[in-house]
Amino acid sequence: MAGEKTEKPTPQRKKKAIQEGQIPKTPDLGAWSGMLAASFLVPMALRSTMERGAELLRTATRFTEDPDPAEALELLRTAMLGAAAAVAPLALGMLVIGVAASGAQGGIHFSSKLLMPKFSRLNPLPGIKRAFGGQALWESFKITVKTAVVGWVLYAVAKDLVPTLMAAGTMPLTSIMPLVADKSVELMRYAAGAGLAMAAADYAMARRRINKQIYMTKEEVKQEHKQSEGDPHVKNAIRSRMMAMSRNRMMAEVPQADVIVVNPTHVSVALRYEPTKGAPRVVAKGVNLIALRIRETAAEHRVPMVEDVQLARTLYKAVEIGQEIPPELYVAVARVLAFIMSLRSRGSAAGLHRTPSSV
After folding, report:
1. Do β-strands 305-307 and 259-262 pair in parallel, antiparallel, or remain unpaired?
2. How far apart are CA 106 and CA 212, in angstroms?
3. Can you tell me whether residue 308 is helix, strand or coil?
4. Bridge-partner residues for 217, per DSSP?
5. Which pTM value belongs to this model?
6. Where are the transmembrane segments (predicted)?
């Protein structure tokens, strides 16, 4: 069906989607990862805080016996530094987890397009569609599962904790508090593990939804290919223009050639020999119409032409324009040049000739 998005997104389309903020993400990954990290970092922070608090209380007890304003300021500074040192690992760890969770979901990108006002967002119809569409059903399902899983984890942990607390009526508070703290940490870890599993499923759904949104029609793929590779008609026109310029430069070399080796009608190869620059070089060559143009230009400028079928074919195939002839053709080309020199000495070099070997 025309206009149906059936083609996978191209790399350019994916890049554009990222620039527009269309990146599969789930906030649950960062939230549950943070809770899991907190289950390890919070006990460490509490232990550090309690140790520093105990040391501060011992110092404060000595201070009350001999009050001194300088010592009071030092005590305040020590307390503030201790609190910062105790909380710093927790704050830094949560920051790292948040950044890592965002980076794991396609990296950190800033899209200015999301900040631009769009009047289409004021249209209530898309909002109503989202409220009753598949995305709304998924969100409702996700909330239900999340509540059920957290409730089950809470029940599983409390089931073991409540009987212990009921039987601990005679236990001191210092023994009960570590037990409650351990169970609380266990609750956080179980809940975080279940939450991460749900976050992975939510991320998979978000990725599937975004990929579906950026699918392309066949026409869009063709249009993008034209934009990235260039319009074929324009490229062909440029290529034709460049070939024409190259041919014109080649034809300009024909009047300066020493001899044109021909086939006699299908192939033409122009040779120039300058002793100070090495072996003879091919300055122009062509077949069919181009070969005819070379012969016509040669006749117009009285450049001698020699009919040698095998040599003309070999030169055309083996030597590019501007290159010297290979050593295996030295003898054959030397024979042609010597023949032309003998004709020039008699004043009859112009026109089409046959070498003595080809007669």
Report:
1. parallel
2. 17
3. coil
4. none
5. 0.44
6. 81-104
Task: Identify whether the C-beta of residue 233 lies closer than 8 Å to the C-beta of residue 21.
Answer: no
Write the CB contacts of 168 (distance below 8 Å, at least 6 apart in sequence): 175, 176, 179
How many angstroms separate the first and last alpha carbons of the chain?
Answer: 70
Residue 105 per-residue DSSP state? T
The answer to whether 343 and 353 have CB atoms below 8 angstroms apart is yes
Report CA-CA distances (Å) from 22 to 3, 106, 114, 123, 290: 21, 10, 10, 20, 56
Pairing of strands 267-272, 305-307: unpaired
Give CA–CA dist 148/151, Å, rounded.
Answer: 5
Domain regions of the chain by residue span: 23-211, 254-358
pLDDT in tens, the chain (359 residues): 556 777 787 777 777 777 776 777 787 777 888 888 888 887 777 777 777 776 766 666 665 666 666 666 766 777 777 777 777 777 787 778 777 777 666 655 555 554 555 555 555 555 555 555 566 676 777 778 777 877 777 777 667 666 666 665 555 655 666 766 777 777 778 888 888 888 888 888 888 888 887 888 778 777 777 666 556 666 777 777 887 787 888 888 888 888 999 987 789 999 998 888 888 999 999 898 889 998 998 888 888 988 988 899 999 998 888 889 999 999 999 988 888 888 888 877 788 888 765 54
Considering only CA atoms, which of 322, 323, 305 is closest in space to residue 262? 305
3-state secondary structure of 84: helix
Give the pairing of strands 352-354 and 305-307. parallel
Cα–Cα distance, 98 to 15 (Å, whole number) = 24
Pick the CATH number of 254-358 from 3.30.470.30, 3.40.605.10, 3.40.1690.10, 3.10.129.10: 3.40.1690.10
